[in-house]
Backbone:
């Protein structure tokens, strides 16, 4: 029993954050319908990933990077499975690049996250272009306007950097 309690105490925050993120994303289609606006254009999956990156271990961020798009596909049918896989790759690149830049290169959180988001987007759009060209996907290369993506990337990175400045890694939150 003590081992179970010790494990729970060790992973409690991560588990609760993951449950909260998945529940929020599960409710997103309903909230979009009620608000009569496409909330998915605010890139809630990436925001959820960044929350996981901020408050949990990197291995969990990788798990979230794959779980969120696949769970979204299973629960709502959007994005389609192949696109969900591309998003999982994009988010994994984001986590890997941010980890490399933050830990190895000691980049500031804001710059590191912007670079990681940009690296993920470059990989995503390159793969999406190839997929569209090969007929594996239908639709447009860019569905969310680039300026909206840029605003969201800068805003998310600014909040991320602010939170890290207040609660640096390893501190008690």
Residues:
């Amino acid at each position: 029993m003590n081992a179970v309690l010790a494990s729970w105490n060790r992973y409690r925050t991560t588990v609760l954050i993951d449950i909260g993120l998945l529940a929020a994303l599960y409710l997103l289609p309903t909230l979009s319908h009620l608000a009569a606006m496409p909330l998915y254009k605010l890139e809630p999956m990436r925001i959820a990933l960044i929350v996981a990156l901020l408050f949990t271990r990197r291995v969990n961020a990788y798990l979230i990077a794959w779980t969120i798009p696949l769970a979204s596909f299973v629960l709502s049918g959007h994005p389609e499975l192949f696109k969900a896989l591309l998003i999982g790759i994009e988010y994994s690149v984001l986590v890997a690049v941010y980890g490399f830049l933050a830990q190895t290169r000691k980049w500031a959180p804001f710059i590191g996250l912007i670079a990681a988001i940009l690296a993920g987007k470059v990989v995503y759009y390159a793969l999406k272009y190839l997929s569209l060209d090969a007929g594996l996907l239908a639709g447009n290369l860019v569905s969310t306007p680039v300026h909206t993506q840029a605003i969201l990337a800068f805003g998310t990175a600014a909040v991320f950097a602010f939170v890290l400045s207040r609660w640096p890694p390893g501190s008690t939150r």
Observations:
- The mean pLDDT is 87.
- The first helix runs from residue 2 to 35.
- The chain has one domain: 2-166.
- Residues 2-166 form a domain with the Arp2/3 complex 21 kDa subunit ARPC3 fold (CATH 1.10.1760).
